[in-house]
Amino acid sequence: MTDKLAEICATKRVEVAARKPQGLARWPAPTPVRGFEAALRAKAADGFALIAEIKKASPSKGLIRADFDPPAHARAYQAGGAACLSVLTDAPYFQGHEDYLIAARTACDLPVIRKDFMVDPWQCAEARAMGADAILIIVAALEDAAMVEIETAAREQGLDVLVEVHDEAEMERALGHLRSKLVGVNNRNLKTFEVDLATTERLAAMVPADVLLVCESGIGSHADCERMAASGVRTFLVGESLMRQPDVEAATRALLLG
Ligand SMILES: O=C(O)c1ccccc1NCC(=O)[C@H](O)[C@H](O)COP(=O)(O)O
């Protein structure tokens, strides 16, 4: 099995080197940052909080949604009760695009995380320039110094940071080196694509009380959310299972409320 995450990050480094000289002037000035973490904490205070993902395709599943319509999906997610959006902007592996983030954010009032592979602090300025309210740091993809540098750049831009881990060692690195109080456990092993909800259940006990834990990947039903809630988890990042539904708004409501 090849290490897909390493391959994606190597491709991303080449892409970023090519994009940097183009600068950031191609986008109009974005509207002010919408509080991503604050929106999640507000919803999680009295129910489940959802980061609903706009995801056309993935390396593990190929094409997920043929009639892909980011503004329509954004409106449906908001009407269904999502707290925030996640929009894939990586093109080579997810058929994403920065225009999808811009269109989705413009179509609703929700804060948006730029879902991409951050390998260079410059991508934080780029994320804010296209309108993002938060970025993702994947601990497995970065050395300690690099992830600290990217988190610092994100904070300078006023962006919230979702820190993603997959095992105990990554959780210790995240809690030991980074300041963000928003930590996601990805149930998908990004090297093998295996998904196991028990990953969140195992790591939940390591999370301090002031950190908001996000359960990421493989959530397909309200019953899955209830299962995670037994471990104290009330915040979820969900893509594929919602994107496959004909009625995204109804599916979002059903996921959150049962
Ligand atoms: O989804 C993939 O196949 C994938 C492959 C390699 C790196 C990242 C990948 N996905 C990113 C994510 O973690 C998910 O898009 C996100 O957590 C939502 O997961 P799901 O609800 O299972 O679509």
Automatic annotation (TrEMBL):
Catalytic activities: 1-(2-carboxyphenylamino)-1-deoxy-D-ribulose 5-phosphate + H(+) = (1S,2R)-1-C-(indol-3-yl)glycerol 3-phosphate + CO2 + H2O
The secretion signal range is none
Q: Name the PROSITE patterns for this protein.
A: IGPS
> EC number(s) for this protein?
4.1.1.48
Record's keyword annotation contains NAD: no
Q: Which UniProt keywords apply?
A: Amino-acid biosynthesis, Aromatic amino acid biosynthesis, Decarboxylase, Lyase, Tryptophan biosynthesis
Question: Pfam families, per this entry?
Answer: IGPS
Q: State if Nucleotide-binding is listed as a keyword.
A: no
Pathway note: Amino-acid biosynthesis; L-tryptophan biosynthesis; L-tryptophan from chorismate: step 4/5
Which GO BP terms, alphabetically? Answer: L-tryptophan biosynthetic process
Q: Which GO terms describe its molecular function?
A: indole-3-glycerol-phosphate synthase activity; phosphoribosylanthranilate isomerase activity
Domain (Indole-3-glycerol phosphate synthase): residue spans on this chain: 5-255
Q: Which HAMAP family match?
A: IGPS_B
Family as reported in the entry's similarity comment: Belongs to the TrpC family.
The molecule here is called Indole-3-glycerol phosphate synthase
Q: Which organism is it from?
A: Novosphingobium ginsenosidimutans
Q: Which gene encodes it?
A: trpC
